[in-house]
Specification:
Layout (H helix, E strand, L loop, with lengths): L1 H8 L11 H7 L4 H9 L3 H17 L3 H10 L7 H17 L3 H8 L9 H15 L2 H12 L8 H16 L4 H6 L1 H14 L5 H14 L4 H4 L3 H11 L4 E6 L6 H20 L6 E6 L5 H11 L3 E3 L4 H10 L5 E4 L13 E4 L3 H14 L4 E7 L2 H14 L5 E8 L2 H11 L2 H15 L15 E5 L2 H13 L7 E3 L10 H5 L5 E4 L1 H5 L13 H17 L2 H4 L5 E3 L4 E4 L4 E5 L1 E6 L2 E4 L3
Parallel strand pairs: 1-2, 1-3, 3-4, 4-5, 5-13, 6-7, 6-8, 8-9, 9-10
Antiparallel strand pairs: 10-14, 11-12, 12-13, 14-15
Length: 585
């Protein structure tokens, strides 16, 4: 093949003829730099052909700076008709990634007049439809492209990957195609199996094996997607021995015992379904020095260490244990550039909830927020996480109100909504005119949402106070902490206007443990649910390291964040009497 390329490069003055299909098949694996090297050793039409291939590859590599430079260097007058048409398709992709999707659609509107360009056209049009949010159209085009024959730069293979990723991201949105094409339905079924990430991984594995048995000739059976391989590897590599590091005495004893009970309940369920369970050893992190526990874990050659729970011990343990040891810390890990990818932090920290509230408020197109927080470390952390996510573009925070007790709430909100100024204007007018005036105070109108992070006692005062201050129409988004599991309807009535986050298990079946309802207070039940999730998460370590993986746990949808900590998203709910009802964002 190398001799063929050299021979082509040496005939620069001869009339150009496109490379053969065999040559193109080998060329599709070349980098932009390799194509440019071929162009430098060629001349005339052949050199421009290779520049075009470099341009197309740079776009596929998302190196748009290089693509822009190459676009200016190509002499389009020397290209063949096929190459000129192909270059237009590539320019359309270039426009899509510059945000000019309408112009790209106009270029693509004439369709692909050459059979050899059909796959490429489908790929480019799919990308345009994704940019426009037309996911059903994009999926159909990706699928059509994936079933095409060979094309330059192997667009069918690219489309197969894009089609698969679109199924995982958006679901099977093209139901019409799915109803008439068996191969398409098989892809949907496989995606559903892979996405059903909850509870026992063995359930997924059995469903996957059944799919393989029924689809022996399917392309995903022959060349499985990475997510399928990760699922299989996670089951195969499920830990056989686990070290649990929990505070089972001292200040955090109740918390440690709640996590332990949750973990053991999930372990028990796995056993009664006749699946293998790991051997566990429990260390009281409040009794033994954490550095000593790290040595014992290393000597015991445990597959996974889960814990500790308190932040200081987490820091000490991760600094004392090998970077090769798989660790699921039950608190957030400190940001560090060189932290091991085998060390993950999982917590019920308020930061995840506050960031989710900010994203939801932004998605609802709110622009101006007031922050109501309890005067505590939890409140400050929530405010910081909300603000970090919120302040961008033209979104603003109008006021930050720290709440210490219910008696000062009205006064502070009066000041924030400028009701006190309205009352002052009323007094001034009455003094000027010498008579009483019928007057309705007016509040400021530039606040379109309120973020609430407080304990239940303070939270129950917020909605009535807002109503008193003529601000009942301002939507309130709150963290899960505002709700305590009370059977007293009177306690909950004042929370009914407030939308707040809830872990899934509270909405679904109110069982944090796997086998029986807990008698613990709600805040400790959350830690039981955390113990359940910790058991299942530790058996999916291979998957967890994939940023696109989402585990549907009892404490929320759990995924790897940018800092190396596991993040959670929960459900938005409102109270209807004593029932939690999911709300639509």
């Amino acid at each position: 093949m190398a001799a063929t390329i050299v021979a082509l490069a040496s005939c620069g003055s001869q009339p150009y003829s496109p490379p053969s299909s065999t040559q193109e098949e080998e060329a599709i694996s070349l980098s932009s730099e390799s194509f440019l090297d071929l162009a430098a050793r060629s001349s005339g039409a052949l050199a421009e052909h290779y520049k075009l291939q470099a341009f197309k590859q740079s776009i596929l590599d998302q190196d748009f700076l290089l693509a822009e430079q190459l676009l200016e260097q190509i002499n389009f007058s020397l290209l063949s008709d096929d190459d000129r048409l192909s270059s237009q398709l590539s320019e359309a992709q270039f426009l899509i990634n510059k945000g000019h999707t309408g112009e790209a659609i106009a270029i693509l509107g004439s369709g692909a007049s050459l059979p050899s360009l059909v796959s490429e056209w489908n790929y480019r049009m799919s990308e345009a439809q994704i940019a426009l949010g037309n996911y059903p159209v994009a999926q159909g085009l990706y699928y059509d492209c994936s079933t095409g024959g060979f094309s330059t730069h192997n667009y069918p293979s690219l489309c197969t990957e894009k089609f698969w990723q679109s199924l995982l991201a958006y679901g099977a949105v093209d139901s019409t195609l799915g109803s008439i094409d068996e191969d398409y339905r098989d892809w949907i079924e496989l995606a559903n199996i892979v996405q059903n990430n909850r509870g026992l991984i063995e359930h997924q594995s059995i469903a996957l094996q059944s799919w393989f048995f029924e689809n022996t000739e399917h392309s995903a059976r022959i060349n499985p997607p990475a997510e399928v391989i990760d699922l299989l590897r996670s089951e195969i590599e499920a830990p056989l021995s686990v070290a649990l590091l929990l505070p089972l005495s001292g200040r955090l004893q109740s918390a440690g015992e709640a996590v332990l009970d949750g973990y053991l309940s999930a372990l028990y369920r796995t056993g009664i379904e006749n699946y293998s369970t790991p051997q566990i050893e429990v260390f009281d992190s409040n009794q033994l020095p954490i550095e000593l526990i790290a040595e014992l874990v290393a000597d015991g050659e445990f597959d996974v260490a889960i814990g500790p729970l308190d932040a200081n011990n987490v820091h000490l343990f991760t600094n004392s244990i090998s970077n090769d040891q798989a660790v699921l810390s039950l608190n957030r890990l400190n940001d560090a550039e060189n932290r091991s990818s085998m060390h993950l932090g999982y917590s019920l920290a308020v930061e995840s909830e506050a960031a989710q509230a900010a994203r939801s408020a932004s998605d609802r197109e709110y622009k101006s927020a007031m922050l109501l927080i309890e005067d505590s470390g939890i409140g400050e952390r929530a405010a910081g996480a909300f603000a970090e996510q919120w302040i961008s573009e033209d979104r603003q925070i109008q006021d930050l109100v720290r709440l210490t007790d219910a008696t000062t709430l009205t006064e502070r909100l009066e000041q924030s909504f400028h009701i006190d100024q309205s009352e002052t204007r009323k007094s001034q007018l009455q003094g000027l005119l010498g008579k009483r005036l019928e007057f309705t105070p007016r509040r400021r109108q530039d606040i379109d949402t309120i973020f609430l992070a407080s304990n239940p006692l303070l939270a129950r005062q917020v909605a009535p106070t807002l109503a008193f201050l003529f601000a009942h129409d301002v939507p309130v988004l709150a963290i899960s902490r505002i709700y305590e599991d009370s059977s007293d309807t009177e306690d909950n009535r004042d929370l009914e206007p407030v939308e707040f986050l809830s872990p899934p298990w509270l909405i679904e079946n109110r069982q944090s443990l796997e086998q029986a309802e807990s008698s613990r207070p709600l805040e400790l039940q959350k830690l039981e649910a955390m113990g359940v999730d910790a058991f299942y998460l530790s058996r999916r370590f291979q998957q967890l390291r994939d940023p696109s993986f989402v585990y549907q746990g009892k404490t929320g949808n759990i995924y790897l964040g940018s800092t190396g900590n596991l993040e959670r998203t929960m459900e938005w709910v409102k109270l209807n009497g004593n029932r939690l009802a999911p709300t639509e964002e």
